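Progress against Task 2.4 (sequence-to-structure conversion) is shown through the following example record, which the project officer requested during the mid-term review.
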Amino acid sequence: MTARISSDGPAVACAEDSRPLPPPRFAYDLPTWKEITHLLMNLPVSLFGFVYVVTVLSTGAAMTLTVIGFPLLAAGLMGARLLGRLERARVRAALGTQIDEPSPLPLRRTKGVLDGLWLMLKDPVGWRSALYGLIRMPWGVFTFSVILTSLFVLWPVLPFLARGLANVDRAMARALLSPSDDLERRIAELESDRGVVVDTAAADLRRIERDLHDGAQARLVNLAMGLGLAKEKLLEGRADEHVAAMVEEAHGEVKLALQELRDLARGIHPAVLTDRGLDAALSSVASRCTVPVKVTADLDARPAAAIEGIAYFTVSELLQNISKHSGARSASVDVWRAEERLLIQVWDDGRGGASLDGGTGMRGLAERLNAVDGLFVVDSPPGGPTTVTAELPWRDRTDGAGR
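Structure tokens generated for the chain above:
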């Protein structure tokens, strides 16, 4: 408020500058009515959830002695998951409390129906949602009774009651419907990834067996047969140009068999990786790529052999994809350490369009990295360029190699 000085006396307030005091805040504002509505709705919502949980889970548990008991129990837990999702949405809308959604069950990674069933039966999110449905029934009756009575009897203190009861609702939802710091998510993923690792190892063994049988073994058999025929001719004293050609052919088969054995050994674990580390091994695999590749490795030490091997084979497969599918003119590989993570970035200026859904190769790499708590990200817009970023946990070598 401003004032002017009058010659007749003290300061007099200007009428046009005087403003009324702000009105008191209305206790029954929109958030309060949302809380009241939420608490009144607790009774019908909790009644439905209680009846569902008791009916479905008790029926499934009672029928576990039969064939359909466990599938029914698993389906009931999946339904409890859905009820938990609906309740989280109701809490967000009415109480303004943000509760993160737990990750879905990784059913696509399971090896069969029984594995998927077992994953659903031990789902902690489903069980906590079922527990939430059980304990909500008495709470729903209590909050409905208190709020309904207060609407007619305790009108002046109703906003305070609604806020206190709503805070209990918020705490209950956070405790039972929130993800537990991603621990449950990681447990489910790692258990599923363990099966992926086993399957991958079995597939690698089958590939090695097939390569030995169809490649080096077949060549060595032909070599033995050719040398046997040449030996017979020499013993018979019939050494001629035909025998010389057979020996020459056998010599060529030996060189091819040795090359195939080297390639096979490199596919299992390259000697250069063991002897000289990731930098030299990546330079070696880059030299075999049909596209010019620039390799940059900024590592002050060597990670554990298992991590080093995964990094090598990840880059190796990505460079093979660049050679076969990208149509690129240049590519680069960057490897560096960031605190306790090993980061890999493979870039090319090809046509782009690569994705994890485009084939089993990229998806297989992602599954391998996920199995060791790694990350695999593909950024490949149509028209390129393509950037693939892989991240692995850094684990120190226990044998002191590379130090």
